[in-house]
Structures are given as C-alpha cells and as structure tokens.
C-alpha cells in the first residue's frame, strides 16, 4: 500500500491530511496512533469504502475498489467486527460464498469447527469475541492478498483478544497474507506484528521492522549533561533532566558505550509513546539536535 499526500475532508472537518506512507508486502504491520490521527480514515480509503479528497493511494498495484478483481484482493474487518444479527453463522458463510469468487468454503467451515461454534447459531446471540471470529473468518475465506483490520480487538476481553490474535497468526502462517492491523493496544501488536507504522496527526513518526526499531532505540541515563555533549551518532528523541541526572531516549544505528552511562533497551510500548508524545508536543517542545537532522 502506497499513500502520497493523501487527504480526506468532510466539509470543513479534516479527517486525514497530507499522509504519505508505504506498507511493505508480506508483513504483519501494526498501525498505531492516538485518537484522531487518521488511522480509520486511512484504512477505509485503502478498502475503497470512501474516496480521497486529495493525494493518491495505491493498493496491490491498483486503485482501491476499482473493480471486482481489485475488491477480491482485499479483506476488511471494521472496528465493530460487523455481522448480521438475524443471520446464522452458516448464513454468513453462504453469503460470503455468493459475494466472493475466490471463496474458500473448506477454510471457512474448518475455522468455524475449530472455534467450536455452531453454524446454526444466530450472530446476534454470539459473544463479542465470537462475532469477531466470524468476521475474521468471512474476511480470510475470500483468500485476500491483503487483510486490513481496524481495531478488531478493542472491545474484547483479554482472553478473547488472545484467541483472536492467535487465529490471525495461524492464518498468516498458513496463507502468507499481508496484514495491516490498527490498534491502541501496543502490547498486542508486539506479539503479532513484525513491522510498525506510527501515525500522529496524519504524519508518519516512525516506520520500520519491529526488530530493527527495538535494536536502535535506547534509554540513556547519566549524570546531568547537555544533549550536545553526546556522540553525533546518537539522535535525541526525548530528554529529561533533574538536578543531578539526565535521561535521554536516543536512536543510534551504532553501539556506543561509556562507563558513565546506563544504557537500556526500550520495549515497543515505550518506543511508540515516546515518539507519539514528542510529535504531539510539536513546536512547543524544546529543540534538540534531532530536530535539525
């Protein structure tokens, strides 16, 4: 998926503005960001549910929802994991088969059986986690090249979230589907995603393979010092100071050690929140060396 200066407006309301990003193929991509960052709008544009006001977006080499062939390549599960309350699980599978030329009936039926769900059960009587599993089944049984999931586990309890994500990883392992998963729950993304994109106010703050991002971000604690005294290879993301101590979040591709430092790796949640808070501070934060690179 490639977006260039992508924007969406509803009258005077700006839902997405000047968004440029790239989603690599063959990855499980975590899309994170605060409320209002434009995540849902971006994913709806990628599915072709809405059209852009400005800029461009290309998905799997074509314009979203440009025709039946393009629609067949993309599976989508929205925030509320929608199902039809009056239809049974079996009805959902029959509907999926009629609407999707590449429908894999065996995959759909096997997933429902493995989940221990009764095909005759009405969707309106299912738990939130079960409805999410049915929605995921319908999305993956069309055998998409790209599966887009917009906050699919936000309303689920911890056990249902874990079961949903385990099911997702089984699908990825078996079929090699590219996945874009948006979530506020960074701990969930850390378990399943191998690539991360952080979106704040429509702009990408960090993007890259999770292993690479974690290997190049550190928390550096030392006696109080100015950021300008750190090695040039260290890019300062955030800094805090007390009377005697300085703490820096730094990004560096090269290992630099000093006996006077305590250098610790960041977990993914700390990394994301650091970049997010820095971006939201905007021009109000104190300039550091990183701002001039």
From TrEMBL:
This protein's UniProt keywords: ATP-binding, Nucleotide-binding, Transport
Tagged with keyword rRNA processing: no
Start and end residues of each ABC transporter domain: 1-226
Pfam family, one: ABC_tran
Signal peptide start and end residues: none
Entry GO MF terms: ATP binding
This protein's name: ABC transporter ATP-binding protein
Organism of origin: Streptomyces virginiae
């Amino acid at each position: 998926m490639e977006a260039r200066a992508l924007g969406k407006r509803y009258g005077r309301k700006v839902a997405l503005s000047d968004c440029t990003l790239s989603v690599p193929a063959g990855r499980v991509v975590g899309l994170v960001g605060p409320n209002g960052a434009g995540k849902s709008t971006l994913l709806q544009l990628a599915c072709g549910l809405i059209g852009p006001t400005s800029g461009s977006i290309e998905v799997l080499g074509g314009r979203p929802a440009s025709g039946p062939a393009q629609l067949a390549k993309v599976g989508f599960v929205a925030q509320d994991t929608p199902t039809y309350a009056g239809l049974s699980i079996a009805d959902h599978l029959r509907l999926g088969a009629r609407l999707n030329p590449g429908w894999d009936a065996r995959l759909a039926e096997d997933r429902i059986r493995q989940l221990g769900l009764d095909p005759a059960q009405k969707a309106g009587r299912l738990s939130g986690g079960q409805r999410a599993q049915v929605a995921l089944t319908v999305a993956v049984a069309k055998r998409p090249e790209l599966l887009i999931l917009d906050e699919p586990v936000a309303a689920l309890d911890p056990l249902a979230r874990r079961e949903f994500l385990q099911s997702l990883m089984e699908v990825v392992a078996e079929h090699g589907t590219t996945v874009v998963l948006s979530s506020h729950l960074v701990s969930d993304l850390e378990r399943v995603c191998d690539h991360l994109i952080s979106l704040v106010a429509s702009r990408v703050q960090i993007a890259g393979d999770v292993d690479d991002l974690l290997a190049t971000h550190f928390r550096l604690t030392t006696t109080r010092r100015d950021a300008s005294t750190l090695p040039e290879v260290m890019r300062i993301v955030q800094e805090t100071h007390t009377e005697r101590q300085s703490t820096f979040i730094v990004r560096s591709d090269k290992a630099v050690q000093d006996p006077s430092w305590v250098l610790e790796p960041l977990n993914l949640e700390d990394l994301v929140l650091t970049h997010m808070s820095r971006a939201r501070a905007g021009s109000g934060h104190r300039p550091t060396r990183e701002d001039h690179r």
